[in-house]
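CORE FACILITY INTAKE
Project code: CF-77B
Contact: R.S. (postdoc)
Sample description: multi-component assembly, two entities in total
Requested service: structural model of the whole complex
Turnaround: standard
Below are the sequence entries exactly as provided by the requester. Do not edit them.
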Amino acid sequence: MTTEIDTVFETALQMRAEQIESLLRRLLDERIRPGEIARPDHLLAAMRHGVLNGGKRLRPFLVLESAALFDADSDAAMRVAAALECLHCYSLIHDDLPAMDDDDLRRGQPTVHKAFDEATAILAGDGLLTYAFDIIADEATPLPGDRRATLVLALARAAGPGGMVGGQALDLDAEKNMPAEDGIIRLQAMKTGALIRFACEAGALVAGASVADRDRLTAFGEAIGLAFQLADDLLDVTADAGTMGKATGKDAAAGKATLVSLHGADWAKRQLGGLVAQAHELLEPFGERALLLKAAASFVASRSH
Amino acid sequence: MTTEIDTVFETALQMRAEQIESLLRRLLDERIRPGEIARPDHLLAAMRHGVLNGGKRLRPFLVLESAALFDADSDAAMRVAAALECLHCYSLIHDDLPAMDDDDLRRGQPTVHKAFDEATAILAGDGLLTYAFDIIADEATPLPGDRRATLVLALARAAGPGGMVGGQALDLDAEKNMPAEDGIIRLQAMKTGALIRFACEAGALVAGASVADRDRLTAFGEAIGLAFQLADDLLDVTADAGTMGKATGKDAAAGKATLVSLHGADWAKRQLGGLVAQAHELLEPFGERALLLKAAASFVASRSH
């Protein structure tokens, strides 16, 4: 069911994606900055290949819209959003490596280690991760220094060993030892949940919002992070069902446990409905300003249909 | 020639190494922190393997001694030094990977991808890089927020595509296309020089020293970074001369151009002498307080003898 707000949302998502794309392009074209020696062209080309690939830019959208709730400085929000996208793309480059998921294609294009080589892909990922913190900490991000430090810290926690990188380590382990339900939940909260949560929290941090507001956005981020993963797992089942004629997908074929494989698709759809309702309720205090963020929650959950 | 100050230096270096080792151990034993989900044990073990390996901890020493010049907060300097060491160790873990230098041993121990596996080594490196920024940005580093942000930025620039990671990319390229002298100088300034420079600059940043003092420490760091690399290249020639009975080493055998291979060992020794004199002169204004840092410059250069 497509309602008016969904159409508005899709237009807004695309507009935001273009804005972010333009900033990312500028940031990744920079060849030298104070305190640096000229960045090698080949490395920059690999970094651009990994980032400028037509992604939906959902995480940046969440940063920008959560920042807009609080009338935060929009230039600052844009830079934080771009930094988060650089970090997200580094994680995809490293995930695709032969030693990890060994993927040759992403969005129909050769992955970075295919288009360049493995060593360059490792370094392009390292470079993007490092640059993400640079972009936030830089005085060009028009925020007081302590707020820039808080954002660096929150991003490092979301992305590090107690967040995304830890989730990736658990995921590798899960291929050998199938985790129980609590293990799956932990893995997903770290691997995909942590960055989505940061994206929502970041808006409050950029604005210097109250702890209560920050907590509200964090809870919203956690709800849609769960919904995102559940929708993904559901998509894995239903998408393949269309092409393979049966209700088993890539994860199931790989013997990978998901909440959908444990509880079934109907349960997952009910859960999704509950998560979206919870996410919407968390944003009630913001009234009409939160319409696009609410639509984002619905969008994230509806990827399975 | 061993003088009294050299003996004092070696004792101080060892004492500092033990202090840093103890802080690193505490930081790498942390299983969960605010905003995180519990870090996977396996990943933490790989991170510890890559860091707690008995290094000399030269870079942390430079941070601590440059901070001491300005009476900077020593807890803050310790945390910045530990962060830098985590970052340095991530770079070694990734450099050792099969797709990069493909080394099985480091300091006589199996490298991380040998002791664990390749995927875990990639993630341990990613985790350490991310954690380095966390450690600095954290309020547990007792500095005003804007100073923490400045330190994050300086470290990101030294470590990123316009610094260490860029140098590593140039180094890979140099194996295929032998660079000319200016290319070698650029490569080395990025690959090893940038972090050593940051180590010296960091003391001034922790202290919030004047721009003039920061510039002085930066110049000192650049001089000893050059000396470090020259001594390394010289060591490659002279160390192998002893065992192989001729004056060609690993780099020469690999067809790798260095300033030593271009200009010869005698030229390199004269250069080293000049760099040490320059480094010492830069520290003159600090008088006796700079004795250990001056000794560090001599130590770095004398690794070739």
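Facility notes:
- The beta strands of chain A are 105-106, 109-110.
- The mean pLDDT of chain A is 93.
Invoice: internal transfer
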